[in-house]
Amino acid sequence: MRFSVWAPAARRVRVSVDAGVHEMTAGDGGWWHAEAEGVNYAFLLDGSDDRLPDPRSKRQPHGVHRESRVYDHAEFEWTDDAWHGRQLPGGVVYELHIGTFTEGGTFDAAVDRLDHLVELGITHVEVLPVNSFDGTAGWGYDGVLWGAVHEPYGGPDGFKRFVDAAHARGLAVVLDVVYNHLGPSGAYLDRFGPYFAGQNDWGPGLNLDGAGSDEVRRYVVDNALSWFRDFHVDALRLDAVHALLDRRATHLLEQLALEVDTLSAALNRPLTLIAESDLNDPKLVTPRERGGYGLHAQWSDDFHHALHVKLTGEETGYYTDFAAADAIERVLRGVFFHAGTWSSFRERTHGRPVDTRTVPGHRFLAYLQDHDQIGNRATGDRLSASVSPGRLACGAAVLFCSPFTPMVFMGEEWAASTPWQFFASFPDPELAEAVRTGRRREFARHGWGEADVPDPMDPATVERSRLDWSEVDTPGHRETLELYRTLIRLRREHPELADPWLPDSTVRTDGDLLVLERGRLRLAVNFGTAPVASGVAGEVLLAWGGATAGELPPETFVLVASR
């Protein structure tokens, strides 16, 4: 068996395989190679006796600080030969965290709930990061070995069973991946070579454009291609791409998009790249032939912020600008609220307009809630903890009648009462205390008392964040679930609602009244506390809270089809 590792500055490299230690031979480009037999292995650099896991490890059965294990992707028996993929346009995405989606917190336990998503009308299941991180419980964004699947969830075979089961039900799988930083524990890459360059808000960033960066970029791209090829995933959600600092003529994102499109042609199924970006820059989703990076979609925080302020009345921090009376109208017309306009939160102008004549709305994921917008609140409280069922229903109606690709966060569809809080489980007591203290200080600056912020290292914080599936069929929850099912069904049955071209829509606001016209369909929403005339007429397709085609009581909506 051949073992290889990139260590361009090393003078001597050995590989420990099971009980033996073998000298490695230097090859081209800083790569070292050795032939040995065994399954558990680690590398020793220069004169050190530290046994380091493989940067390209495919399995870490004993955690991120221990030896790697040989894993052969070809040994898994797939049953999805009939799966030919699913395009994102026209889809509905469902974001979930494996560890808290079910009581079991594993891939196999999540499989048992996939039928619920099918009945809901979901087309794409987005899974928060599953790569190896230190500890047993965490969000997954502190991963350090990107090719090895977190063992407590079920390891690589467990994830493959999940993907296989999803495909059998017609569900595409989106995987959240983090290439902008590495976690604070177990990140040994810099011991091997010039992987790191500077720091960002979350940890060490990657060297994407300096000396030795060719292999670092290859490390990222090869990892992405492996998820598509070896794990059969259908899409990747790229975390915080604005933190990928790359000054090359061909940005890493453009290189990645090109190679993914090439693999898509070879596999004969659609492969999708979805960016999370704070830049409000349509260049990300502009095709390469028009000077863009060629990614297929990106998250739309501005949609979330505008609707969140309308539903909750919160106007602090980055929500301040979105208190503008026309905020929702602006995002429904042009995607970005900040499009070369002043951002008071940033104290500068921000963003660039989207050419809605050439860039379709399906390239922007819209949502009422997501893991960040819930979990990064001090107490992890959902919208259902602070707003009425009527206001939640109004928000859902705007989401599913919008020209964007809708996304739902797990449990949102039944107004789950469980919070989703920030949690981790670093074994190192000093690191654990640093995370705990840092979290409390962060929210203290925003007026929260220390006692109000859950201890992220307390196992009870994880338990509180698990979905309570017993709520699904109980009063106060089943009505919201039925509403979500109906809205998704109507979006599928009426092509106007999934029409991605923003110029085809008309939107107007008058105080608390919003009217959105999608072809022959009209959505009228009353966000206020007093009745209003809807201003629409036609066959009622869906009404909430006693609404009629002519009259909207407080916090209600009606969807009609004109005759």
Outline the secondary-structure elements.
Layout: E1 2-6, E2 13-17, E3 20-23, E4 25-26, E5 31-35, E6 40-45, E7 68-69, E8 93-96, H1 98-101, H2 107-111, H3 114-120, E9 124-127, E10 131-132, E11 145-149, H4 155-168, E12 172-177, H5 189-192, E13 196-199, E14 204-206, H6 213-230, E15 235-238, H7 252-267, E16 272-275, E17 297-299, H8 301-312, H9 327-334, E18 341-343, E19 348-350, E20 364-367, H10 371-375, H11 389-400, E21 405-409, H12 429-444, H13 459-465, H14 478-493, H15 495-498, E22 505-510, E23 513-518, E24 521-526, E25 532-533, E26 539-544, E27 551-552, E28 556-561
Parallel strand pairs: 8-9, 8-21, 9-12, 12-15, 15-16, 16-17, 17-20, 20-21
Antiparallel strand pairs: 1-5, 2-3, 2-6, 4-5, 6-7, 10-11, 13-14, 18-19, 22-23, 23-24, 24-28, 25-27, 26-28
Site (Transition state stabilizer): 372
GO molecular function, one term: 4-alpha-D-(1->4)-alpha-D-glucanotrehalose trehalohydrolase activity
Enzyme class: hydrolase
Strand portion, in percent?
15-25%
What proportion of the residues is helical, as a percent range? 25-40%
Structural class: alpha/beta
Main sheet attributes: strand count, strand direction, barrel closure:
8 strands, parallel, barrel
Shape: globular
Cα distance spanning the termini: 71 Å
- Rg result: 24 Å
What is the typical, i.e. mean, pLDDT?
Answer: 96
Question: How many DSSP H or I helices?
Answer: 15
Low-confidence blocks of residues: none
| Strand segment tally | 28
Strand order of the largest sheet: 8-9-12-15-16-17-20-21
